[in-house]
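Incident log, support desk, overnight shift.

02:14 A customer reports that sequence design results differ from what the structure should imply. Their input is reproduced verbatim below. On-call engineer (initials T.W.) acknowledged and began investigating.
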């Protein structure tokens, strides 16, 4: 059996990238937003482990999502401002990306916006 997990971006993750780009464009510039998103995507591809059990070592269970009744997601601090929320699906050997956000954004507001857009 293959021990490598595949990384899968959910539709909400893709929408959260758009929201993050809009947030960064408003806060700084479109050029910075585009560069930052490329950096984030590269970092996820290169640093998110695809072999268990290092997922637990990389990121703890997300307390913010747990308080909202969304269990099992991990929160990975990508850099000074950006966070990635993901879940490890051991049964299907997948790492499921839920969303990415700037820590200056409101998680509740972002989840609400994503639900409206989805």
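02:41 Re-run completed on a clean worker. Output:
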């Amino acid at each position: 059996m293959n021990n490598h997990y595949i990384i899968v971006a959910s539709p909400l993750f893709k929408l959260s990238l758009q929201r993050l780009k809009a947030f960064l464009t408003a806060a700084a510039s479109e050029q910075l937003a585009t560069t930052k998103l490329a950096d984030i995507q590269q970092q996820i591809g290169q640093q998110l482990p695809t072999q268990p059990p290092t997922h637990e070592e990389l990121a703890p269970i997300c307390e913010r999502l747990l308080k909202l009744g969304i269990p099992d997601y991990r929160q990975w601090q990508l850099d000074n401002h950006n966070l990635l929320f993901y879940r490890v699906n051991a049964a299907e050997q997948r790492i499921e990306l839920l969303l990415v956000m700037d820590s200056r954004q409101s998680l509740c507001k972002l989840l609400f916006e994503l639900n409206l857009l989805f």
